[in-house]
Amino acid sequence: MSYEYIKFGKEEREFREKIEEISGENVFSCYQCGKCSAGCMFSDKMDRTVNQQIHRIQMGQKEKVLAANTHWICASCLTCSVRCPRDIDVAAIMEAIREYILREEPEKIIVSELPKEVLERLPNIALVGNFRKMTG
Ligand code: SF4
Ligand code: SF4
User: Per residue in 16-56, pLDDT tens?
Assistant: First the structure.
């Protein structure tokens, strides 16, 4: 699909460009074949599949992208990145969404203040992403 004739607003464009900058990927390379989501062992736990998230990023739909649980469920196993026929590092895009959120809201997760019962239920990657915000 060609996006050449779609006019994006400033905010939509900025969001997409930021995710591309952090991930180092061109989201418009994605042609929505769905192979990434088909191979993801956590797709059934995600409220939006990874290819749906990529499509939303293409369209600059920041609020919808950030509202999904997809990037927090992602375990960075890289299966999607290996399967992508367009050589898109899909896992890096999921990481970029996490980084985007944690850069905008550095206090979103303060590990030392999390109750033990929450720590036991929290996806590991949420904790890993939290520590990366301090190094990236
Ligand atoms: S496998 Fe690659 S091209 Fe296919 S939907 Fe996923 S990111 Fe897009
Ligand atoms: S890296 Fe994340 S999105 Fe990709 S297959 Fe693994 S868990 Fe799913």
Answer: 999 999 999 999 999 999 999 999 999 999 999 999 999 99
Q: In terms of pTM, does the model score above 0.85?
A: no
Helical residues (DSSP H) of the chain, grouped into ranges: 10-23, 35-39, 50-58, 62-67, 70-73, 79-83, 90-104, 116-121, 124-132
Q: Where are the domains of the chain?
A: 10-132
Atom of ligand 1 at shortest range from CA of 83: 1
Mutate to test the pocket of ligand 1, among 27, 28, 30 (most ligand atoms within 8 A of CB): 30
CATH of domain 10-132: 1.10.1060
